[in-house]
Every structure is written in structure tokens, then in C-alpha cells.
Amino acid sequence: MQLGEMNVKIFADGADLNSIIELQKNPLIKGFTTNPTLMRKAGVQDYAGFARVVLKAVPDLPVSFEVFADEFDLMEEQALEISSWGQQVIVKIPVTNTKGDSTGPLIRKLAGTNVRMNVTALMTLDQVKNVADNLADALPSYISVFAGRIADTGRDPVPMMAEAVRILAKYPHLELIWASPRELLNIFQADAIGCQVITVTNDLLKKLSLVGKCLDEYSLETVRMFYNDAMTAEYKLASPKCAVSSF
Q1: What residues contact 34, with CB distance under 8 A and at least 6 apart?
Q2: CA neighbor of 103 nearest in space, from 140, 133, 64, 65
Q3: Rounded distance, CA 117 to CA 180, Å?
Q4: Residue 123's closest CA among 94, 91, 92, 166?
Q5: pLDDT at position 46, please?
Q6: Contact, 121 vs 146, CB < 8 A?
Q7: Residue 81: what are its φ and ψ, rounded to 5°?
Q8: Does this model's pTM top 0.85?
């Protein structure tokens, strides 16, 4: 199956402005997400200024921006401010604050103010159930389960993500995001279980051209890469004559 034949939607995940501008031209990209860590890594200093440039460049696709306060009253203020930036804005709310306190009550409150949300950093099915319940009366929103980080712990995320799809089936206005993928295979896995969205970083997006590539050709390219790198490095080994030891 080719990417264009899949039901899962690809959201580009990053904060490099040039990449965002270029990717919004790609018909495979159906939305964008970012977070404070990605923005800091990209050198963003003016949060709101950066967001407004992105929204001007991407006027017709959903774009998620995350609150960064830790107190719930400040989170609410930031969520309302971010939501006011445009119709396509989705407000990312972490599943807890840094103390581990659930944002459930805040999520439920924001749902009553017509804020579209992307509740993020979930890693358990109990969290999925709780967040979905608090988003029951919300506008169309997203729930991001960090499948890649789950995999980093040695757990297979596919059964958990499949169960999350089942849990959310009774909430047609909520879409499950397969977040933090580690390889392009995750796109096909997400599609196979009925996950609606997968976020993909720029590094992985650069590999999209490999999908469906002939493996014999890829093998030959790999052999040539090793050879060319060895020649460029001018590696040399002595060629000792074979010697037979006598005892």
C-alpha cells in the first residue's frame, strides 16, 4: 500500500519555519504540530510571533500549539489566548502538570468554551479513558498517545494503540494521534489499526521517498555507500602473507 492510499492522516511535527512552509505544499501533510521543546531546539524566541507566522503560512490546515504554564489557572489563560489566534488552531494541553496532577477538570472546562484541544503526552489506557470522558462534550479534538516513547520502554505499542482506537470509537468527534513515531513503519501500523492521525518529524518525513523502494536496489546502494565512504576516508590495511605455523 502506498501512503496516498491510507486513511491515517500525517501531521508534520516540528518547529523549523522553512520546513513548515515547504511541507504545507505537500498533499500528504494534513496538519502540523509543535511543542516548546521543538521550538526551543529550533531557536524560537518569540512564541506568539512564531505562531502567527506559521498560521499565516498554513491558513487551511490544523496547527497545534501547546500551553506551557504549570498552574491550571494560567494554563486556562494561555489556552484561551492561543485559541484566539485562528480558526485552525488546536490547543495542546498536557495530560498532567509537572506535579502529576490531572488536567481533566481544566480540559472539561475548556471544552465548554469551544476550545479545540489536543491533549498530549498520554501513555496509558487509563489516561485515554479519563481524557475522552472529559472531552465528551468538546468540539472536535485530538488525543495524543506517545506510542514511540512507549516503545522506548520495551513495550509493543500496537496493542495499546489498537485498544485506544476501540475506546475512542464511541467518541466520533475525537481523533487518536499516534505520537512520537520512531520509524516510517509506524505510519503503516497506525493505519492498519484505524488510528486517525500520526505525527511525523522532519527527519522521518525525509524518508518518505523510501516507501515501496526495491530492496535489491536499496541493498546495492548500501554496499556502494560503504565502499565509497571507505575510499573517501582512504582506509588501508596491510596485506600480510598467509603463514603456516609449525609446532
Answers
A1: 13, 14, 15, 54, 63, 64, 65, 66
A2: 133
A3: 18
A4: 94
A5: 97
A6: yes
A7: -65, -50
A8: yes
Active site residue 109: no
The domain segmentation of the chain, as residue ranges, is 3-230
H/E stretch holding 198: strand 197-201
Q: Are 117 and 107 in contact (CB under 8 A)?
A: yes
CB-CB contact of 174 with 180 (8 Å)? no
Interhelix angle 125-134/104-111, nearest 10 degrees:
30
pLDDT class for 3, splitting at 50, 70, 90?
A: confident
CATH class, range 3-230: alpha beta
Q: What is the mean pLDDT of residues 67-92?
A: 98
Determine which one of 92, 99, 170, 207 is catalytic: 92
- Under the banding of pLDDT at 50, 70 and 90, the label for residue 245 is low
Beta-bridged to residue 118, according to DSSP, are: 92, 142
- The 10s digit of each residue's pLDDT in 117-133 is 999 999 999 999 999 99
Contact indicator for 130, 164 with CB cutoff of 8 Å: no
Measured between alpha carbons, how far is 38 from 224 in angstroms, rounded to an integer?
A: 35
DSSP 22-48: HHTT-TTEEEEE--HHHHHHTT---HH
